[in-house]
Amino acid sequence: MSRAIKIACGSVVVGLVVLAIKTLSWWLTGSVALLSDALESIVNVATALAALVALRIAAVPADADHPFGHHKAEYFSAVLEGVLIIVAAILILREAWSAWQAPRILDDPWLGLGINLVASVINAVWSFVLIRAGRRLYSPALEADGKHLLTDVFTSVGVTVGIVAAVLTGWAWLDPALAALVAVNILWAGWQVMRHSVGGLMDAAAPEEELEQMRALISANAEGAVEAHDLRSRRAGSALFVEFHLVVPGEMTVDSAHDICDRLEHALHASFEGSRVTIHVEPEHKAKHSGIVVL
After folding, report:
1. What pTM, to 2 d.p., does this model score?
2. Could you report the per-residue pLDDT of 61-76, keeping only the tens digit for each?
3. 40 near 88, Cβ under 8 Å?
4. Percent over 90 (pLDDT), the chain
5. 3-state class (DSSP) for residue 206
6. DSSP symbols for 119-170
7. What's the CA gap between 8 and 125, in Å, rounded?
């Protein structure tokens, strides 16, 4: 079992624990704002399960039907997470509207808030674990899950502050108003998750800092070649696909050109774990004099 899949399993367990804690907090207080927080935790569990399934699919080796691998399954998971977040926001808005029409005084708010705070601390710690692991392992599913959990933490803090204000002032309408704000915040988070994932599905280029690093590596390790041009790259989950044209002197042998390609592939693999490098070798008259200069 890969590290990413183990972390995804941990997300399911953490999500169930937090859901139970937040449900208890809502049951003790009757707060619709705390109910909205609990509803978001249901989404957390569902998305953690989706991420786990996607990671297992992404880990399947390339085959005849999928020669480039199954890495993009992670992006589908992140899109699904965005959709579920939006559904949760709609449910929360419905509960907030019902409570706005008939606001009520909260039951035992301090105990409920104290219990909810425990859930927020668990989510905060786990969100940083997920974001860090997602970036290190180049896993869109884990990173999206972590960012969603972090949004949940900020939501919980806002809900806590608002409920304290509602209890101290006696303004019962603050509770449903907070729930509505939670829903709007969740909608924004869902949009951000979906926007990032759609970029991956559409083969968006690697970040500019990674492209600059690739150019520097090619320039430093292509001794014997004339130039390199038409560098292209894209990420698909943990895999990084790199393609470029390498111009070599016309009289160079195939063996010598192949040695340069091997050297370049080794340098790129060493710096970009999971990279898949494709090099198209061209004779000198194909030079564009506008690509990567060989040092």
Report:
1. 0.60
2. 777 777 777 767 767 7
3. yes
4. 20
5. coil
6. HHHHHHHHHHHHHHHHHHTT-HHHHHHHHHHHHHHHHHHHHHHHHHHHHHH-
7. 15
